[in-house]
Amino acid sequence: MRRALGLTLALALVAGVAMLWSPPRPARAAPSRPARLPRIVLIGDSVSGEVAAAATAATAGHAQVEYVLTIGTANVNDDWWDVWPRVLDRDHPDAIAVLVGPWEINRPDLGTPAWSAWYGARLDRWADLLRRDGARLYWLTPAPARNPTIDARLDVVTSAFRALASRRPAITIVDSAIALGATGYLERTASGDRLRRVDGLHLCPAGAARVAAALLDAMAVPTVPGWPRGAWATTEPAYSATECPP
Question: Which domain covers residue 129, as residue numbers?
Fold first, then answer.
């Protein structure tokens, strides 16, 4: 009996030592979270919406693209300024691109010293709001217009955008005319693809693709193969059979 008790105690002690000196189990690694895709916000009028459709298709799986419609800053109510903090709080963008122009040229004092001071101050305020959280800011120049009078007025606001970038070096200018393949208005590519809609202002898919490609190149965002000919190029808002005829 005494021998059995001793054996039991010995086994218990051995077990206790084994438990005491057993090597610790390796900690389980926490499940890895998928990397957050870069977030891009495109801001602007319906032309910007056409570029946004192209950029969304181009960056599938590489970035998250959001589009915010606005006609610009020249013809808006005071509560327009309240929109941008809400956009930043909702989307938390890493990069922001602005494309406006045709709605900015209607003031009778366009191009005067008084207009330049007034409009420049509005652009400064807008840029500072958009840069609040450190997002990279890109400003696209408006695409040239077929109508020479409209085109000359667009040149005035383009100069204001370039002056804004000179005052704020963190802003990158993306030249839409160069992206489309010329310094002035260009209706079609050399191979015959239609770049511009019949109104001479808006973009057809080939034009939207060129502008989006230039913007994404400036942002250093990768694109998916073959995206310019994807399904996005056959539906609105990028395409209209009546506005983009062969």
Answer: 36-234
CA 68/CA 170 separation, integer angstroms = 21
Prediction pTM value: 0.85
Per-residue pLDDT tens digits for 125-145: 999 999 999 999 999 999 999
**Which residues, including other chains, have CB under 8 Å from residue 53's CB and lie 6 or more apart?**
208, 232, 237, 238
| Angle, vertex CA 56, rays to CA 196 and CA 240, nearest 5 | 35
When pLDDT is cut at 50, 70 and 90, the band that residue 35 belongs to is: confident
Does pLDDT of 4 surpass 90?
A: no
Residues 174, 106: Cα–Cα separation, whole Å: 23
Check residue 7 and give its pLDDT.
39
Q: What are phi and psi of 109, to 5 degrees?
A: -95, 15
Domains contained in the chain, number: 1
Would residue 242 count as lying in a domain?
Answer: no
* Residue 12 located in a structural domain: no
Can you tell me the distance from the alpha carbon of 222 to that of 184, in angstroms, rounded to the nearest whole number? 28
Residue 210: inside a domain: yes
